[in-house]
Design a protein that fits this description.
By secondary structure, this protein is an alpha/beta fold. Among the domains are: about 25-95, Dna Ligase, domain 1 (2-Layer Sandwich), CATH 3.30.1490.20; about 110-230, D-amino Acid Aminotransferase, Chain A, domain 1; about 560-720, Succinyl-CoA synthetase domains (Rossmann fold, 3-Layer(aba) Sandwich). It is built from 22 helices and 30 strands. Strands 1, 6, 7, 8, 9, 10 and 11 form a seven-stranded antiparallel β-sheet that branches. A seven-stranded mixed β-sheet has the order 14-15-13-12-16-17-18, sandwiched between helices. Strands 20-19-22-21-23-24-25 form a seven-stranded mixed β-sheet, with helices on both faces. Helix 4 packs across helix 6, helix 17 runs parallel beside helix 22 and helix 18 packs antiparallel against helix 19. The protein is flat, with a radius of gyration of 32 Å.
Length: about 725
């Protein structure tokens, strides 16, 4: 098999095609051709041995410096061939001019550039400190390497980021004790050529080009002194959407279920029990079970052949792989029967698949789509089920006694999760989080995250989409990023928790790029630039989801004010802010303090409470002073108010709840009329769940601790 490796002299050809300068060079694949090299005797040159899969020439003895002479070059050629050719496929000798270039006196000035067309994230352009110490810079210096997913960054946006980066400041003479090596126009022009080079790579089916070092010569020209690359061995770019009729999945009229049994607690039986509670049309539910005409009052058919002339929208298969895959094969063979097949079982294409069922099913789907033959859309495998509020449809195999789902057809929140457990635990944890739709998408054998997002995107009533994903299939990260951009353009919000933050799988073990950029780092850059709200922990995801579910039309975040009756919450909130950006706290003016002092005096709190932000009203505070202070903070200019209510105070109504309900209603009217955000913190135990519910019913995000509410605000602020 031919190596996909691209040697330096081949890389030079690609660079020249887009106008990126290289040294004058001559490649001799045979010693007899050295005499034809276009160099003067005595001219300083660099001699490089070329071999397939030779990534680091200096470490392999394939690099020498000398004055040009046929004998000297021939000698170096012979020595390198003898040393390198023992282990690698020898190509020949590359002779280049020795380029004089500018060096910063007090800082590194050699540049590393990488262009990688990644199967997951598409085109990635990296720019950072180069030379022999490239890996050391990347290891020792945080953010030593700028990474730009080309699908969401323009050369101009990259230029603006680079200007603020240490390397950019060195190159432009903006760093301390540095002189400019180039100017804005030249640097911008070089970046534009990198984007042109990426387009060439797509046309030529190249997977990787690494240029190291790139230097700036005495005339101010960017020159690539060395380079290696890889040709693509597989297709790169976005995956194709799965052909699917919208109504068949989001608004099914008929559903069939395979895999029910009389065994109590079986997966199929649990699914059937939940489906029976839906508002599907009469006769909209069907069971596939041979040998019986009816099961639990639902009509049965013996096999999928019965669906050929009477198809369903969704076929849920709660059978093991040994029965599931043949059933789908039979469905495809007859050419009709179900628009969507939802596979519940695992053991298909995952670590438990010892028989190759995943590959068997994937090959079936691929071949039929390639040949233009009918094939259903496949969800899963290893899917827990889904929720469709408009139909009150619950296909989860979780009993009602464990998870009592509250349907919310008018909700503007949807959740897509690769993990079914993540979906149901969010529903359990957020008692007031009523979803329009919820999907457990499983292992994405066919339908990918972007397919589900595309479905949700068409429903304009969904304003907030929460996503848990562990892995992107193929080029799906790019497709997802485009859908995120669509959401943001419509002032809709996508919250993402990305699990499985492993290092990027390297195309070649000795390539710099994979080790230095990292899988999650690239995905984070791609999705953040597209406009996603990225969360780094489950706590962050929960906090942001609460804020966004309460305020789905959020456009801008203002400064934060904190009003509480507990001193520890004022201290803790400032500690949490300090980890991020203390300046996010609203700063009271002298006029604000005077007005706040008047409120305190009116409520008899003068001398007990200092007019400040955070504001500690002490346990003496009742609902009246709380409301007046919150209203004042909003009037001053605070965009977000965190309201801390430690309910153990005698002054707060936590028993009859009449005052609490009136207070919560007034707060809601205040938030709606001003367009400001109010969050509620009730840091107390089980006896106060009813008190929490008062504020939840008014639509407020209610947190168990002040730090959680502030944490969510910090994440939202960082995403703007």
């Amino acid at each position: 098999m031919t190596s996909p490796f691209i040697a330096e002299h081949e890389v030079y050809g690609f660079l020249s095609a887009v106008g990126i300068s290289t040294p004058r060079y001559y490649f001799a694949d045979d010693e007899s051709k050295i005499a034809d090299a276009p160099f003067e005797n005595g001219e300083p040159v660099v001699i490089k041995g070329m071999a397939r899969d030779l990534w680091h020439k200096s470490e392999k003895g394939a690099l020498a410096f000398c004055d040009f002479g046929v004998e000297a070059v021939a000698a170096a050629h012979g020595s390198m061939r003898e040393q390198v050719g023992k282990h690698l496929d020898w190509l020949g000798t590359l002779v280049t001019e020795r380029v004089r270039y500018q060096r910063a006196e007090h800082a590194p000035s050699e540049i590393f550039v990488s262009l990688k067309r990644d199967q997951c994230c598409g085109a990635i352009i990296s720019f950072g400190f180069g030379g022999l110490l490239t890996e050391d810079w990347a290891r020792e210096l945080r953010q030593s390497l700028l990474v730009w997913p080309a699908s969401v960054y323009t050369p101009e946006e990259a230029f603006e980021e680079l200007r603020e980066h240490w390397l950019g400041k060195i190159l432009l003479g903006k760093a301390r004790l540095s002189e400019a090596l180039t100017d804005d126009e030249s640097l911008r022009g070089f970046l534009e050529k990198l984007w042109e080079l990426d387009e060439l790579m797509a046309r030529e089916q190249l997977a990787l080009l690494e240029l190291n070092p790139v230097v700036i010569d005495d005339s101010g020209e960017f020159v690539a002194l060395d380079g290696v690359g890889l040709r693509s061995t597989e297709a790169h770019g976005e995956t194709c959407p799965v052909p699917l009729q919208d109504d068949s999945f989001l608004n099914p009229r008929r559903i069939a279920l395979a895999g029910v049994s009389a065994k109590a607690g079986s997966v199929g039986s649990l699914i059937l029990e939940n489906l029976r509670q839906s508002s599907l049309p009469e006769n909209g539910l069907l069971v596939i079970k041979p040998g019986v005409d009816e099961f639990a009052g639902i009509r049965c058919v013996p096999d999928v052949a019965a669906l050929a002339d009477d198809p369903v929208d969704i076929l849920i298969v709660a059978l093991p792989a040994t029965q599931c895959v043949p059933m789908i094969e039979a469905l495809c063979e007859q050419g009709s029967g179900a628009a969507v097949v939802y596979i519940v079982a695992g053991g298909i294409g995952d670590g438990a698949d010892r028989e190759g069922y995943g590959e068997r099913l994937y090959s079936l789907i691929d071949s039929r789509r390639q040949d233009g033959e009918w094939c259903p859309a496949i969800v899963g495998p290893n899917g827990l089920g889904m929720l469709l509020s408009p139909l009150q449809l619950n296909s989860l195999f979780i009993p009602q006694s464990k998870l009592n789902v509250e349907f919310a057809p008018d909700s503007d929140v949807a959740l897509i999760s690769q993990s079914g457990a993540f979906l149901i635990t969010r529903l359990s944890r957020h008692s007031n989080l009523n979803l329009k739709d919820g999907f457990s998408i499983g292992n994405q054998l066919d339908m990918k995250l972007s397919d589900f997002r595309a479905l949700v995107a068409r429903d304009k009533s969904v304003r907030v989409l929460g996503v848990y994903v562990e892995g992107f299939v193929g080029g799906d990260a790019c497709a997802v990023a485009k859908l995120v951009e669509q959401f943001r353009a419509e002032n809709r919000h996508v919250i993402i928790y990305k699990g499985g933050r492993s290092q990027l799988g390297q195309s070649a073990a000795e390539s710099h790029t994979g080790a230095m950029t990292g899988d999650y780092h690239v995905q984070k850059r791609l999705l953040h630039k597209a406009g996603a709200i990225l969360t780094e922990s489950f706590n962050q995801f929960n906090a942001v989801l609460k804020w966004m579910a309460a305020y789905p039309d959020l456009r801008e975040l203002g400064k934060l004010a904190i009003v509480t009756n507990a001193g520890y919450e004022t201290v803790g909130s400032v500690d949490t802010l300090g980890e991020y950006d203390f300046e996010r706290l609203y700063q009271l003016s002298e006029g604000d303090r005077a007005a706040l002092g008047n409120i305190l005096e009116r409520h008899g709190m003068q001398g007990l409470v200092a007019a400040s932000n955070p504001l500690d009203l002490t346990p003496m505070a009742d609902e009246g002073i709380y409301f007046d202070c919150v209203e004042a903070m909003i009037g001053f200019g605070a965009g977000v108010v965190m309201l801390g209510l430690v309910p153990l105070s005698e002054q707060l109504d936590t028993h009859q709840l009449t005052q609490a309900e009136a207070f919560a209603a007034r707060l809601r009217s205040l938030a709606q009329s001003t367009g400001r955000l109010i969050g509620v913190v009730i840091d107390a135990g089980v006896p106060y769940q009813g008190y929490k519910a008062v504020f939840e019913r008014q639509g407020f995000p209610v947190f168990d601790g002040m730090d959680m509410g502030v944490l969510g605000i910090n994440v939202l602020k960082n995403s703007r």
